Amino acid sequence: MATNSVRLDEELVQKASIIAKALNRTTPKQIEHWAKIGEMMEDNPDLPYEFVRQAIIAQAEREAGKLETYDFG
Q1: Dist. CA 60–CA 64, nearest whole Å
Q2: pLDDT score of 67
Q3: Which of 3, 8, 41, 66 could form a disulfide with 61 if both were Cys (CB 3.0 to 4.6 A apart)?
Q4: Mind telling me which InterPro entries this protein's record contains (predicted)?
Q5: Can you spell out the DSSP letters for 11-30?
Q6: Contacts (Cβ under 8 Å, ≥6 apart) of 40
Q7: Sign of the CA dihedral running 61, 63, 64, 67
Q8: What sections of the chain are H helices per DSSP?
């Protein structure tokens, strides 16, 4: 993964640092998480935040091999 330096508002970085610590993430990973959510919300403006959050969780579960087949009916 390539990395780039980006200038960010200090207040944003401080807030990300606090939230990251609470959620056991690094500050850059917290900012990436927020960016991912923002991108998904902009691409799907009619979806509620909770649906987007659950989609991110489901994707992580799938990548970890933790999903089970659901049988309809």
Answers
A1: 6
A2: 80
A3: 66
A4: ParD-like (IPR021831)
A5: HHHHHHHHHHHHTT--HHHH
A6: 47, 52, 55, 56
A7: positive
A8: 10-22, 27-43, 49-63
**Confidence tier at 68 by pLDDT (50, 70, 90):** confident
Which pLDDT band holds residue 73 (cuts at 50, 70, 90)?
Answer: confident
Give the pair of three-digit tokens for residue 31: 């900012």
pLDDT digits (tens, 9 = 90+) for 17-50: 999 999 999 999 999 999 999 999 999 999 999 9
CB 40 within 8 Å of CB 59? no
Question: Which residue is associated with the tokens 């960016």?
Answer: 35
Neighbours of 33 (CB within 10 A): 16
- Distances in whole angstroms, Cα of residue 46 to Cα of each of 6, 32, 49: 30, 22, 9
Answer for the pair 16, 31: CB distance below 8 angstroms, yes or no: yes
